[in-house]
């Protein structure tokens, strides 16, 4: 099986610290994985609010990297194709949703700002927000958006962010058809 680092290198994205950060979006406890996946798949503006609004305690923070490779936890039932080799008991996969270039620092969330998808008062929670000018959607690996499925292994404490060179991921498959129409660079 190929490794995610092979695709990252082919796209000329950096693999060292401060280079490429892998980010996995999931929240089965508050909204459910299907709601989050559908928000991405159908370009729901709440998804953009969600990924731009972050807990400053979560690390590594986005601005520590030059590029973000973003993934979303996806219920297998949402896919239009079967993932070869996926154990029958596995109910979710990790689907690639795009690359963003980090070009600036976040700001504290202001009074009245919310994470609309999770329905959180972002200001009261002390969250930070990356304005659109700070996170630029990139066309790197664009042909793999909604198609590349990786293995994000389960462990005792599942981390939602990894440095690409420290936690390489196995590519399970590249689906024939994209699972969502979302192309982030077209929304500018």
Describe the protein's architecture and organization.
- This protein has 188 residues and is of the alpha+beta class.
- Helix content is 13%, strand content 27%.
- The strands form 3 sheets. Strands 1, 3, 4, 9, 10, 11 and 12 form a 7-stranded mixed sheet that branches.
- The chain is globular and about 45 Å long.
- Mean pLDDT is 86; it is low at 183-188.
What is the compact description of this entry?
The chain is of the alpha+beta class. 13% of the residues lie in helices and 27% in strands.
Topology:
Blueprint: H1 4-10, E1 20-25, H2 33-41, H3 45-52, E2 53-54, E3 67-75, E4 92-102, E5 107-108, E6 114-115, E7 120-121, E8 128-129, E9 135-138, E10 148-150, E11 161-163, E12 171-174
Parallel strand pairs: 1-3
Antiparallel strand pairs: 1-11, 2-8, 3-4, 4-9, 4-10, 5-8, 6-7, 10-12
What are the main properties of this structure?
single chain; 188 residues; alpha+beta; seven-stranded mixed beta sheet; three-stranded antiparallel beta sheet; globular; disordered C terminus
């Amino acid at each position: 099986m190929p490794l995610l680092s092979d695709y990252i290198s082919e796209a000329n994205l950096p693999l060292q610290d401060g280079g490429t950060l892998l980010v996995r979006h999931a929240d089965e406890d508050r909204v459910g994985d299907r709601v989050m996946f559908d928000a991405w798949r159908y370009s729901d503006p709440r998804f953009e609010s969600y990924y731009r609004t972050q807990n400053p305690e979560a690390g590594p923070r986005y601005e520590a990297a030059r590029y973000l490779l973003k993934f979303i936890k996806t219920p297998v039932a949402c896919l239009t194709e079967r993932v070869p080799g996926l154990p029958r008991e596995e109910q979710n996969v990790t689907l690639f949703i795009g690359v963003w270039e980090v070009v600036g620092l976040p700001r504290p969330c202001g009074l009245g700002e919310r994470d609309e998808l999770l329905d959180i008062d972002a200001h009261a929670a002390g969250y930070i927000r990356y304005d659109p000018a700070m996170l630029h959607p990139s066309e790197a690996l664009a042909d793999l958006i909604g198609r590349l499925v990786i293995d994000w292994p389960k462990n005792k404490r599942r981390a939602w962010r990894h440095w690409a060179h420290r936690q390489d991921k196995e590519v399970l498959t590249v689906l024939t058809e994209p699972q969502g129409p979302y192309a982030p660079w077209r929304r500018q």
